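Q: How would the structure tokens look for this protein?
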Amino acid sequence: MTEITKTCWKVVKVGGWAPLLVFATHLFIDRVLNAYEWWPPIDSPMHFSGGLAIAFFVSRCFQTLPRQDVPKGRLAILELLLVGSLTATTAVLWEFAEFSLDQLFGTNVQVSLANTMKDMALGIFGAVVLVGVRAAQLRAGADEIKELALDWVRGQAA
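A: Here is the predicted structure in token form.
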């Protein structure tokens, strides 16, 4: 097995399976069941699920990083910021990809601007749900946020 293959399997095992599962479900619903044609609202739970899956994946990746030199409260806030920001970025990039495909192939995946905004909001809402769950698990609170903000202002945050 090559090093690239081993790395890919590690990523899938850590949490990469979640976005892959959502994407495979999307393909099945679209290509096999043709559900987007006969029930367009199915798009909404798919975008929410995608945001949740990406947030889960980012969170699991963050949890595998070395953490011995960083205070626990700091780790919690950094994880939550990373999960939220990377999932929001992924939602935006996904919509950019849909727009690009529509332009290149003359399709109409992005039905309207309102639909695009809703899709991004649902993806980000999926992240918000996971961030809320992780914040409760990590017991991240206002004190940790205040400490991190003060360190940033002083130029001491890592």
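The CA atoms of residues 24 and 30 lie 10 Å apart.

The radius of gyration is 18 Å.

Upvote if useful.
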